[in-house]
Backbone:
């Protein structure tokens, strides 16, 4: 007896993206483990090290994350002294995140580990294909959805 099968999982953009994200995310997490960082934490530190201090809202937008999740992700980094999160002097409702000197030191050790994974992925997947993938994924962020709209 043949059972009808729903092939929607084969064409589901969300599932395909999440599978690839989990696969690569775990690879980056594993590479960054020796310095005590996860890929998301690395991304936050990297953004703060290049952009300087940012409001939690701006940081969340820059990394395509909702504000509440960003605040949760900053807590362990603050506990470890890698970032500070303080109330803005200009707007008491806003909180400002900044990388600390210890955070910069941790990044100096983490960047070569991150680069190694980048290089391995591009050698395996193809540098041009990886660049196209980043461009395509970046375009996804401009499709008009508002996933964190209140």
Residues:
């Amino acid at each position: 007896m043949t059972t009808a099968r729903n092939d929607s999982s084969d064409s589901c953009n969300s599932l395909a993206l999440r599978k690839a994200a989990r696969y690569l995310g775990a690879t980056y997490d594993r590479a960054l483990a020796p310095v005590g960082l996860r890929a998301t934490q690395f991304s936050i530190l990297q953004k703060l090290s290049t952009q300087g201090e940012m409001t939690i809202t701006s940081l969340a937008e820059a990394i395509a994350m909702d504000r509440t999740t960003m605040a949760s992700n900053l807590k362990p980094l603050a506990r470890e002294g890698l970032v500070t999160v303080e109330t803005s002097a200009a707007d008491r409702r806003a909180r400002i995140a900044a990388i600390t000197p210890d955070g910069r030191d941790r990044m100096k050790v983490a960047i070569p580990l991150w680069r190694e994974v980048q290089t391995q992925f591009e050698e395996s997947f193809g540098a041009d294909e990886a660049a196209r993938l980043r461009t395509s994924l970046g375009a996804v962020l401009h499709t008009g959805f508002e996933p964190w709209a209140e």
Notes: Helices lie at 13-32, 39-51, 56-63, 67-79, 101-125, 127-140.
